[in-house]
Amino acid sequence: MSASLPLQALRTFVEVGQRGSIKAAAEALHVTSGAVSQQIKLLEERLGLVLFTRERHGVRLTEAGAAAHPALLEAFARIERAIDALEAFKGRQALTISTVPAFAASWLVPRLGRFKQRYPLIEVRVEATSALVDLRRDRVDVALRHGLGEYPGLDVMHLMAPVLVPVASPALMAGRHAFDAPEDCLGYPLLHDADRADWPLWLAAHGVAADPRAERGTVLEDDYLLIRAAAAGQGLALVPQEYAQEEIAAGRLVQVLDRPWPARFAYYLVTLPAAAQRPEVRAFMDWIRQEVQGAA
Q1: Are strands 218-219 and 190-192 parallel, antiparallel or unpaired?
Q2: pTM of this structure
Q3: Environment class of residue 196 by beta-carbon count within 10 Å: exposed (0-12), middle (13-18) or buried (19+)?
Q4: How far is CA 213 from the centre of its chain?
Q5: Is the CB of residue 188 less than 8 Å from the CB of residue 211?
Q6: Alpha carbons 36 and 17: distance in angstroms, whole number
Q7: Whole-angstrom distance, CA of residue 260 vs CA of residue 148
Q8: Quick check: 53 and 39 in contact, CB under 8 A?
Q9: What are the φ/ψ torsions at residue 135 (nearest 5 degrees)?
Q10: pLDDT in tens, 200-233
């Protein structure tokens, strides 16, 4: 009977059992929740067994499902390892890098030409996404991530802690008095990143008492969007100084106050354990470390 069971249904069963959620499994498999439910229904009908119990906040393996899940989980892990071995055997030097869009556009991509000059035989693919990738499942060699450096089970190398500066469009500031103190920013619309933390922390770091205005304003997903919104005159943004330099030089932004502040989050290079043993990964790690030191 097992030979007639569809492989995709078995893979779906493994993902749902591992995550305890139809939605989470759908995201991992890059399909819809409906497609996941159909695969589970197909498998249960073929086996004549109920594999999951539906609960309020997800699903739970039944006794039958729990009995089969560990072996199938290991089987698919072995398949992935076998595919990894085949990729390595091919011997091509390819490097897939995942990072957030703002870092890719404002820092990494403008420098990649120097990496290609040094290592012309390494094929580089940059995937710019705000989503947290699974390095093994998504076939990503290096992730450049913005966070606190807490990535369990992975090798982590600190790169840089950006310095944030307040910026705005020249049009927004036209005809207004120059800012004398950080609290002057509170008289303008503030643009925030997703957690709304930077403005309150920046103001507190400069001795400004807590003010509800510090948490109001438009929220944007990443620094690149914050820069675009600020350049369009929508408000003041706190962005990494490195990202804003080109816009300031071009006259699309002005730094409204010379009060730089080191962000609490930093950029980290993250890889699977032992990935640095691959020559192309080690080459990129050495190169980006040199780039960071040169930019400091």
Answers
A1: parallel
A2: 0.58
A3: middle
A4: 29
A5: no
A6: 12
A7: 20
A8: no
A9: -60, -40
A10: 989 998 999 989 999 999 999 888 899 999 999 9
CA separation, residue 73 to residues 16, 37, 50, 82, 228 (Å)? 11, 19, 18, 14, 45
Query: How big is the CA angle at 26 (ends 28 and 101), to the nearest 5 degrees?
Result: 50
- The residues with which 271 forms a beta bridge, in sequence order, are 155
Report the C-alpha gap between 262 and 242 in whole angstroms.
12
pLDDT tens for residues 145-199? Answer: 988 888 999 999 999 888 889 999 999 998 777 788 999 999 999 999 887 888 9
Give residue for tokens 């304003």. Answer: 217
Cross-strand bridge partners of residue 155: 271
Are residues 200 and 240 in contact, defined by beta-carbon separation less than 8 angstroms?
no
264's tokens:
């609490």
Long-range contacts of 168-172 (CB under 8 A, 24+ apart): 168/230, 168/233, 168/235, 168/236, 168/237, 168/253, 168/254, 168/256, 169/230, 169/231, 169/232, 169/233, 169/252, 169/253, 169/254, 170/251, 170/252, 170/253, 170/254, 171/233, 172/233, 172/235, 172/236
Chain position carrying tokens 């497609």: 35
- The domains located in the chain, with CATH, are 7-86 (1.10.10.10), 92-158+267-294 (3.40.190.10), 163-262 (3.40.190.10)
